[in-house]
């Protein structure tokens, strides 16, 4: 069997025999006789080994922004692999696509988010946010400011840090102990938390829960608030419109860093490059992944505000954090080309002006 000439029944047998798929019920997978084998993708369609064509409504896992089968992305990877497939950023070194991608993302982020730290997955980006927020306060001489506030039913990944920060009960029930210094407050989910309440009153109340918790633990102990602009994995939960401005105001009032987790919302999902731009707030840290490369290669990033970078530069010494594949040249080259496609084809604008309104209208009809 080769990658060009495979036997679906045999692949399913090997899948049960050797593969543990992600986020799965492994008993059920065995009973089902293995994973559905997905063999090909083109545009918005994926194909399985039994010949079914499936509309990939979720864009993989909310990541295949530009659709499947883009030759330009394959070409970008091919060219970069032949030029310099890999090098690291540990040795005071960086490859051209890495630096160019950092500059491009900074431009898209706008405002005072002029710097970017690279990782490989959304979970790793969240790890960076957590370490950076805590290190920032330590560097400023306030090491006791290390508590991170997140929301119940928020999702921030599956590593120990990401699962700890996330508010997923199903995850917290498995394993542990979890990372200390994390507080969870109510999610801004009107339907689930306060059905029938006035949306704006609830938006205010859900945001105020953050202030209340800051006061309970002591403002001098809180490093950052971390939250998804729209909760993705929790159920695509759109907060009331007054929620985000109020959260931002609370963070500013107590000098707490505001970190937005844009792993899903980033790169156009809300009709803006980033979700925080849609809600008109100014975060200090921005985690992103998925749509950055349309999932063609793993890469993630954290946008960092100037005042945080200033502190890192003032204090000096190594910030001992980073990954073998931070700023991977081939992933960065693919991400650059992907962003070029998003811009050239006006896909972010189309989401705001065409696809988004169309889906909203169709949903309203269905309702
Ligand atoms: C908001 C958010 N943060 C973090 C993650 C984790 O990303 P990854 O699965 O790439 O580690 C996800 C994944 O869906 C996510 O939606």
Provide tags for this entry:
7-stranded mixed beta sheet, binds pyridoxal-5'-phosphate, Aspartate Aminotransferase, domain 2, 2 domains, 15 helices, globular, 3-stranded antiparallel beta sheet
Structure in words:
The protein is an alpha/beta fold. The chain folds into two domains: 8-62, no CATH class; 71-347, Aspartate Aminotransferase, domain 2 (3-Layer(aba) Sandwich), CATH 3.40.640.10. Helix content is 45%, strand content 13%. The protein contains 15 helices and ten strands. The protein has helices spanning 8-18, 26-32, 59-62, 71-84, 96-109, 122-139, 160-165, 169-172, 190-193, 199-217, 243-254, 275-279, 306-315, 329-344, 347-366; strands at residues 38-42, 45-48, 53-55, 115-119, 147-151, 182-185, 222-227, 257-261, 285-288, 300-304. The strands form two sheets. A seven-stranded mixed beta sheet has the order 4-10-9-8-7-5-6, sandwiched between helices. Strands 1-2-3 form a three-stranded antiparallel beta sheet, with no helix packed on it. Strand 7, helix 11 and strand 8 (257-261) form a beta-alpha-beta unit. Helix 4 (71-84) runs antiparallel to helix 14 (329-344), helix 5 (96-109) crosses helix 14 and helix 10 (199-217) packs parallel to helix 11 (243-254). The longest helix has 20 residues, at 347-366. The chain is globular. The protein starts with 7 loop residues before the first helix and ends with a helix. The chain binds pyridoxal-5'-phosphate. Pyridoxal-5'-phosphate binds next to helix 6.
